[in-house]
Amino acid sequence: MKHLHYIITLILILSAGIAKAGEGMWIPMLLQYNEKEMQEMGMKITAEDIYSINHSSLKDAIVLFGGGCTGEIVSDYGLLLTNHHCGYDHIQKHSSVEHDYLTNGFWAMNRGEELPCPGLSVIFLREMRDVTERILTGITVDMSEDERQAKIEDNIKKTIAAIEKETPYKVSIKPFFLGNEYYLLLNEVYTDVRLVGCPPSNIGKFGGDTDNWVWPRHTGDFSVFRVYADKDGHPAVYSADNVPYKPAKHLDISLKGAEEGDFAFVFGYPARTNEYLPAVAVDQEANLIDPITVDLRGKVLDIYNKYQEQDPKVRIQYASKHASIGNGWKKWMGVTEGINHFHGVEKKQAFEKDFQEWALGARNRYMYIDLLNNFEKNYKELEPYELAYTYMAEAGLRIELINFAGRFAKLSEVTKDTPQEDINRMVDNLKTTVKNFFKDYYEPIDREVATMLIGEYLKAQPADFRPDFLNDIKDVDDYVDKLFSKSMFTDEAKVKDVLDNFKAKDTKKLANDPAMKVYQSMIGFYRSEVYDHIVSLNDNIDRMRRLYMKGQMDMQPDKRFYPDANFTLRVTYGKVEGFKPQDGKTYRHFTTLEGIMEKENPDIYDYVVEPKLKELYNKKDYGRYADKDGTMHVAFTASVHTTGGNSGSPILNAEGQLLGLNFDRCWEGTMSDLIYDPDICRNISVDIRYVLFIIDKFAGARHLVDEMTIVE
Ligand code: ARG
Ligand code: ASP
Predict the structure, then answer these.
(1) How many Å lie between the centroid of ligand 2 and the Cα of residue 664?
(2) Which of 362, 506, 512, 574 has the most CB within a 10 Å radius?
(3) What is the residue-averaged pLDDT of the chain?
(4) How far is the CA of 85 from the centre of ligand 1 (A)?
């Protein structure tokens, strides 16, 4: 009887403080604690089916792709799916004017045509273990932070060395819960990965930066690769003799689609979240730093747009710069909007009030009493330095001329004692830099950007706390004019000339250049006035965050906590569902090919539709990939907690079958990296049926679909 009581209490405890469904990035080896909730939400498989070290499980099909995305294996021959934007670099590297795979797509019609991708690797997680006790052995409360760090590093080194003796895998140890727990990861890294296929950009990147972070979305954001191994299935460097990798498990693919409300989960590698920050930090990020960054980037993008619209050459030159500046710009706009809409700061403050009361409630909680005050103090102290850093990065170094000059800083500092070989090596690298820079450089844009950014920099940073060069400026237009006309870094021939036969005595030519002087003024200011403060304040903050994390866990012993994302494999789950982004506005959870035709505009680059796709649409030639409603579904949203790095991750149904590839979030919910709100945070995936339709019907690469396991 007593026993039963214990079990009931345990069940109550486990189901009490459950994080809101949808929220959470769970450690796969601990998924048994989520299993019940997942099954209640509709899951038909078990935690063991997802992660097991005793038999094959879904985890054997998931990889960290290229260091920044997720990929999944979908056949017994190492066939891998990820996003188009994840394969982009490699697609681009194989592209030339004659073979423009970015524009036209690429399809290997047999294995011999698959393209090796030097530098690309995929990582399989073979096993993870909790090593917290081992790593925290010998740690005491009275240790200084340095002593603690040294001890932990020593424990990590020893543990890795010991485990390395007993395993063929790559061993690493990572902190979780901000250093309150440590897990060991056994990984296997495969380096022969080949490009198998990708759609043209006007499918793989349909909607481009205009639609980025936005729902409704119609992007066929996928590409196909294949992992190769040696004859025994082990990792091997590229060789023509390598064979397709045979996984312990590949994902099955469902052609059934998903209905609103269906259970779904994402299995992949989220990179970074900060869910346990104090209110002051969230406020600083969402209401100070992000808006400044958004404002500066928005002004830069306006200038890019103006010139890009005028000239197709400039449009291409600035496409990639536009994409990378624009990605953060739109995301952080959403963060600020979301935090305020959701009253994120106030909610954190309300929690902190409770926390403080709790801390004062018992003597053994003394270490938490000053925590919130100290956060306040440290973050406030950090503020001017964060601002200085933000302006340096977003205003100063955003000027291409200054950034480019900075690439020569090392060379400008060589002396007659530097071996000529070293100098030659630097020069060789710089020659490539120079070529790449000028290929995509348009001086009128940069001049206008510089005038605008220097003006903003001057306005925002007080005279006694900014790089010297700013204080020498009388008239910004005039200053920029002189800077650009006098610097050699705007002139490819001059830069090449200096690099040819470069000797130590030539450093003056670099060091005295006005653009280099601006660069040095900024870096000098940062080094002498900013850097040390940022490091030491962040040291304090890291220590306090670790303690605060522990405090939150101590205070809510019944709540199931998940650790912030740290580029380790996680499971996150929720439902396929649309949302209401604003009063009066409702978003359906899926889009169709109809929407692509609605968006079509031959004059707008992002909305050009491939003739072949139109033909298939007109004939409604969707084959078995059509939804039961007769349309071709393209993308769908779900309330699954994802972040950067989850791109390319499989989104799976209740049976663990592939429904689609995650590739983005709705910008209204990008605050999910700081606070998750199940009402407004949605991830976006491309429907696997659209992916297969493109491979099979559009590209005629049916042989790839035939390798996969399709569940109709
Ligand atoms: N916003 C997505 C992410 O953060 C996709 C970015 C790539 N797509 C684009 N149109 N730029 O990575
Ligand atoms: N687009 C992101 C990625 O590339 C995913 C996200 O931030 O939601 O990983």
Answers:
(1) 5
(2) 574
(3) 95
(4) 7
